[in-house]
């Protein structure tokens, strides 16, 4: 009986460790807010995850990975500080809004923005 309890405890610990390594999933309200922020501030240059200024620098999963922009931190930093033709938004959006829109981009990219 004790051996079985030990196995269950070990299994539970392994599962908890695995859950901690999963990517953060946004709540439906955050995704809705992310879509609103994106449509207001980003969609002009990035309609449907594309890029009307620089074609290859899209918000599609493959491009995000290629340019090492496939993490919440990387996208948040780019949105906040801008780079090259990309405007900085840290004066227009709060830190939470930047994180929310970055999470929205990460949610949409694997779905091909559909």
Description:
It is a single chain. α2 (28-41) crosses α5. The chain is mainly α. It has one domain: Cytochrome c-like domain (Cytochrome Bc1 Complex, Chain D, domain 2, Orthogonal Bundle), CATH 1.10.760. The protein has helices at residues 2-20, 28-41, 61-66, 72-81, 95-108. The model has no long low-confidence stretch (mean pLDDT 86). The protein is built from five helices and no strands. It is elongated. It is 55% helix and 0% strand. Residues 29-109 form the Cytochrome c domain.
Mean pLDDT: 86
Order of SSEs: HHHHH
Specify the structural class: mainly alpha
Distance between the termini: 51 Å
Strand content of the residues, in percent?
Answer: under 5%
Low-confidence segments: none
Second-tier CATH architecture: Orthogonal Bundle
Tally of DSSP β-strands: 0
> Helical segment tally?
5
Topology:
Elements: H1 2-20, H2 28-41, H3 61-66, H4 72-81, H5 95-108
Helix pairs in contact: 2-5, 4-5
InterPro entries: Cyt_c-like_dom, Cyt_c-like_dom_sf, Cyt_C6, Cyt_C_IC
Family: Belongs to the cytochrome c family. PetJ subfamily.
Protein name: Cytochrome c class I
